[in-house]
Amino acid sequence: MGTVSIDEFKALLKGKGLKVTNQRLIMLDTLGSNPGKHLTAEEIYNLIKADHPDIGLATVYRTIQVLMELHLIDRVNFDDGVERYELSHDAREDGGHHHHHLICVKCGKVLEFEEDMLEGLELKIAEKTGFKVTDHEVKLYGYCNECGGKTD
């Protein structure tokens, strides 16, 4: 995902009927400027406070809640007890393409895998059961290249 512009964020906020505030724009811009990093609330706060010391941690948490309710950001859980955040599928430049997470069980590194091979499965599920899949999340656990995941 490339960096999403402030104008695109403003359009997203207005499209959701939400007031455009500096805090919301700064939060969205911070997440959009850090693709693939899966930031915690504290990491978002630390990135913001250098340029915007008037924005406190409580404001970051409140803004996260609002942006999640509006489906502009997603909470990501890698089963390590830490909540992280990223732009939602709707807010991504790639038009909402699903991406999946590859999680190293040794070092904890998280990689994004951008190929969506589940679209065919979702169609088959709909045909056979009438169930319409609206979203999915895939986490694959294993070893990254640095931890012995290389296959020669």
What does this structure look like?
- The chain is of the alpha+beta class and 152 residues long.
- Helix content is 36%, strand content 15%.
- It contains five helices and five strands, in the order H-H-H-H-E-E-E-E-H-E.
- It has helices at residues 6-15, 22-32, 41-49, 57-69, 119-129; strands at residues 73-77, 83-87, 100-104, 110-113, 139-142.
- Strands 4-3-5 form a three-stranded mixed β-sheet, with no helix packed on it.
- A hairpin with a 5-residue loop joins strand 1 (73-77) and strand 2 (83-87).
- It is flat.
- The chain starts with 5 loop residues before the first helix and ends in a 10-residue tail after the last strand.
- Residues 92-96 have low confidence and may be disordered.
Entry keywords:
152 residues, alpha+beta, 5 helices, 15% strand
SSE topology:
Elements: H1 6-15, H2 22-32, H3 41-49, H4 57-69, E1 73-77, E2 83-87, E3 100-104, E4 110-113, H5 119-129, E5 139-142
Parallel strand pairs: 3-5
Antiparallel strand pairs: 1-2, 3-4
Helix pairs in contact: 3-4
Proportion of residues in helical segments: 25-40%
> Alpha-carbon distance between the termini?
30 Å
Strand order of the largest sheet: 4-3-5
Oligomerization: single chain
Overall shape: it is flat
Total helical elements: 5
Number of distinct beta strands: 5
What is the alpha-carbon Rg in Å? Answer: 17 Å
Based on secondary structure, the structural category is alpha+beta
Low-confidence runs (pLDDT<50, min 5 residues)? 92-96
Strand content: 15-25%
Write down the secondary-structure element order: HHHHEEEEHE
Overall pLDDT score? 82
Largest sheet: 3 strands, mixed
